[in-house]
Amino acid sequence: MNVISTRQLGKSYGKIAALHDLNLEVRPGEVYGLLGPNGAGKTTTLRLLIDVIRPTRGSITLFGSKMSPRLRGRIGYLPGDLVLYDRLTGADYLRFCGAVRAHPDLSEAFRLAKRLDLDLDRPAGELSKGNRQKLGIVQAFGHRPELVILDEPASGLDPLAQREFHSYVREYADGGGTVLFSSHVLSEVEQVADRVGILLAGSLVVEDTVMSLKANAMRELTFTFGEEVPAASFGDIPGVQAAVQVSGTEVRCRATGAVGELVRTAARFPLLNVTSHEPDLEDIFVHYTEEHGDDD
């Protein structure tokens, strides 16, 4: 049974469609990263899932059921526009959240706060943006929920805090928890996500594992030969999108998928060196953005 499942989920604001027919499945113990530019529908999706806003069409099930007060206690949530009670200390804020959730055991919250180097004795109004974000993360995980939904969780975190947070997320998922998070920080998604979905203009345009996305993405290979080799020799190889003569002895190829045939062809000539630019999620994200003509 999937932890999250949506069917033909859509949300419109008057004549403006924010989300189109979203079919999303998130599995138990999975970290799922939702990528997209501003206005793509990421925050709308997360708010629909936790029932802050209601869909115009389609359906949502969490743990195989529709949202209910009973399910809320099994979910942790970090909004993108986190609002805190400035006069409450971090510890008091966590106690307040525990009371609202009827979950007074704050041991996990205090452990995570220590890992993130968060001072819980200071009022929230005195905290920096990064420390306010840490407090939001702690409250989302602090009651040991089965599912945590995070909107731009790394926003404002320094590199050390980001690294500790990523480690905690992986430990949480390895222990059976499930995480769905949105992000503009592509390196973050690449580090912690098991699967990635890219939203553009309210539509899910691609969904796959990070490994598969990178394996099927456009990559660039440069071959250096001991003598002049015509670029046309590489033009008809499956997967090769372009072959350009850089100099008399150097050929640059852009290719997708397996490159075995390309390398075998290059090996027929006096090959001296091969360099490869491996795609990262940023390359993939830009590729799909350009391919789908997203202007947001």
Automatic annotation (TrEMBL):
<comment type="similarity">
    <text>Belongs to the ABC transporter superfamily.</text>
</comment>
<dbReference type="GO" id="GO:0005524">
    <property type="term" value="F:ATP binding"/>
</dbReference>
<dbReference type="InterPro" id="IPR017871">
    <property type="entry name" value="ABC_transporter-like_CS"/>
</dbReference>
<keyword id="KW-0067">ATP-binding</keyword>
<feature type="domain" description="ABC transporter">
    <location>
        <begin position="4"/>
        <end position="226"/>
    </location>
</feature>
<dbReference type="InterPro" id="IPR003439">
    <property type="entry name" value="ABC_transporter-like_ATP-bd"/>
</dbReference>
<protein>
    <submittedName>
        <fullName>ABC transporter ATP-binding protein</fullName>
    </submittedName>
</protein>
<dbReference type="InterPro" id="IPR027417">
    <property type="entry name" value="P-loop_NTPase"/>
</dbReference>
<dbReference type="InterPro" id="IPR003593">
    <property type="entry name" value="AAA+_ATPase"/>
</dbReference>
<keyword id="KW-0547">Nucleotide-binding</keyword>
<keyword id="KW-0813">Transport</keyword>
<dbReference type="Pfam" id="PF00005">
    <property type="entry name" value="ABC_tran"/>
</dbReference>
